[in-house]
Design goal:
mainly beta, 14-stranded antiparallel β-barrel
Length: about 350
């Protein structure tokens, strides 16, 4: 009974922060989220999660948990290995790989890799002469650890290595940054209700900004000197709820995530025009012990999927499939497949 006041307090605090941000927004132009780095983080990872609208922050089955929420890791009772691929229209590709599990009674570790890129992008020089085809690729590698502080409460941290190869020659447009941190909290209120909070893209400086240098001109194009520009990945705050209900003798998992991207280097900005918000919703219907049907929505993208669990002795082989309709029904992407194996 004492939880309700704290929830009301959080809601009132959120409204107060929103009012302050709106008051500071006058006189500034809205910042565009798509103009910033960090799109790998915004795309998410995992095929099961994709089928549920890219929701995984408060799910104990999330893969890779080192990305979604490292605080989940000590709740993984078995070691799980997972891989997946996501091929989309316009020659876009993506995928993930990970291994995670509990290494002590109150500690879990996990490693995850996310990839996004393009197979076929026409490239041109400054004189608009064709340079052929570029294959830009972004890879994020995450090493996460989570620790329980009670039977139902945990905290976690992950360190990220991010690299982006624009494939234009001479290193132009490339990014390589090590030492970006994600922090997470996870709480099991009951068997039905779980919550999680994650702050992603934190750096080691006074503003906790994930700064990086990007090559703008190679030495061949800049009279023997390489030119670079400084940029940053927006801080990302995610608050998530995962709720399990019983209906018609079936189990339904419902998930929701609210996301805030801060589009300025400062430690915290109150101007609403330097923040972008998003909502993700997902559902997982357990038809039986082997089959799941999923659906979700992520910022205008509608997804659906299914899962199948195949017993393998004392282990399980889990198959995940997802289909995504981007921006309503603008493009249909039916090629997303993943496998998870419990050891």
């Amino acid at each position: 009974m004492r939880r309700l006041p704290s929830i009301r307090g959080l809601a009132l605090g959120g409204l107060l922060c929103g009012g302050i941000a709106a008051a500071h927004a006058a006189g500034t132009a809205p910042e565009v989220l798509g103009g910033h780095e960090g799109w790998l983080d915004r795309m998410g990872g995992g095929i099961r999660e994709l089928g549920m609208g890219n929701t995984g922050t408060a799910s104990e089955e999330a893969m890779p948990a080192a990305f979604w929420n490292p605080a989940i890791l000590p709740f993984n009772r078995q070691v799980t290995v997972g891989v997946g691929a996501d091929i989309r229209t316009l020659s876009r590709n993506g995928g993930f790989a990970g291994v995670q599990g509990r290494v002590a009674a109150n500690m879990g570790l996990g490693v995850g890799i996310l990839n996004r890129g393009d197979f076929n992008v026409p490239a041109y020089d400054a004189d608009e002469k064709s340079l052929g085809t570029a294959q830009p690729q972004a890879i994020g590698s995450y090493l996460g650890m989570g620790v329980k502080i009670s039977r139902s409460n945990s905290f976690g941290a992950a360190v990220q290595w991010y690299s982006y190869n624009l494939d234009l020659g001479g290193g132009t447009g490339n990014v390589n940054v090590i030492g970006v941190f994600n922090l997470g909290w996870y709480k099991r209120w009951s068997n039905s209700l779980k919550t999680g909070v994650v702050v992603r893209n934190l750096g080691i400086n006074k503003d906790l900004s994930a700064d990086f240098d990007q090559t703008t001109l190679s030495s061949e194009d800049a009279q023997g000197f390489e030119r670079t520009a400084s940029d940053f990945m927006p801080k990302t705050l995610v608050a998530a709820v995962f709720y399990t209900v019983k209906a018609w003798n079936k189990t339904f998992d419902l998930s929701a995530e609210g996301i805030d991207y801060q589009l300025k280097r400062d430690l915290f900005v109150t101007d609403a025009n330097f923040h972008a918000q998003a909502v993700r919703l997902g559902a997982d219907w357990h038809l039986n012990d082997q089959m799941n049907v999923r659906a979700g929505v992520d910022q205008g993208n509608i997804s659906a999927g299914l899962g199948y669990s195949l017993p393998w002795g004392a282990h399980k082989l889990l198959f995940d499939y997802a289909i995504v309709a981007e921006r309503g029904l603008l493009t249909i992407n039916p090629f997303a497949v993943g496998f998870r194996f419990t050891l």
